[in-house]
Structures are given as structure tokens and as C-alpha cells.
Amino acid sequence: MANNIVRWEPMREMMSLRDAMDRLFQESFVGPNWSSLWSADAGATLALDVYETDDNIIVTAPVAGVKPEDIDVSIVGNTLTIQGETKAEEREEKGSYIRQERRFGAFQRTVTLPTHVQAGKTEAVFENGVLHLTLPKAEEAKPKSIKVKVK
Questions:
Q1: Hey, is 9 helix, strand or coil?
Q2: Could you give the CA distance from residue 74 to residue 1 in angstroms, rounded to a whole number?
Q3: Does domain 40-88+104-142 correspond to CATH entry 3.40.50.720?
Q4: Any idea where the domains of the chain sit in the sequence?
Q5: Closest CA to 74 of 127, 139, 124, 129
Q6: Side-chain half-sphere exposure of 37, counting CA atoms within 13 A
Q7: In the predicted model, is pLDDT for residue 93 greater than 70?
Q8: pLDDT digits (tens, 9 = 90+) for 102-151
Q9: Cβ–Cβ under 8 Å, residues 80 and 59
Q10: Distance (Å, rounded) from C-alpha 89 to C-alpha 66?
């Protein structure tokens, strides 16, 4: 049994002040609890559900309060962008509002899809405030089954 002796260098184990400060700020302010507080466009993002089947990539996005004609979907390569705008509706001035919590303004979400899709065959359906996208996978991205022959 061989014994390896390693010289101890205490300076190697010490974290630099810069590394410590970077770590402090990353853990304190960039984490999931704080990022929305410091984001300039907090609330202007769009929640997405993305999953894949053998033939398609399916994307659903809640866009309640947005008209279908105010939504723009684009695909470049394997990057999907959904953007739109929630426009202000008429307000009644019968009383004084205590609180009005409707979001107005533009939103955008860009995601990288796990594979290339056939953009020209994408189907977009707007139903009950939810946008459903069916993106057919490119033929070269679909799984291929190879049968093994017995001799």
C-alpha cells in the first residue's frame, strides 16, 4: 500500500474575497425568490408548459385577457418566441378604485426547443385563454426504429 504525502497549501483552500462576494450576490439576489423583484420587466414574462411526444413538441401558454390577433408566434431554427400585448380596456369612473390588479402591456418569451421543428406545419389554437402550439418535429429529429434481422 503506497502512502502519498501531499503538501498542504493553506492559500489554495482560501476563497478569494471576490469569489466570496460573487457567491453572496448570486445566492442572495439571483435566486428564484429575488429575481422577480429586481427584474425591470417583472410580470412581463409568460409561463410555458413544453413537452414532447415522438412526433411533436407541444407548448401551452396561459394568455388570458389577450386577443388572439394580439399574439405573435415565430420560430427561427429551434428557437420559439411568443409575444403579445395586453391592451387596456375602458374603465368606468363611477367610483374610486381601491385596487386594480390587471396587467397591461407587452410580454415576450423566447425558449430554445430541444430539437428542430417544421415551422410551416405548426398549429396554433387559442381556447379559453390558453394558447396551444403543436410543433411537428423535423423528420431528421424523429426517432427511428431499426429492426434487427435474424440469420
A1: coil
A2: 64
A3: no
A4: 10-39, 40-88+104-142
A5: 124
A6: 7
A7: no
A8: 667 788 899 999 888 988 999 999 998 899 999 999 887 677 778 888 88
A9: yes
A10: 11
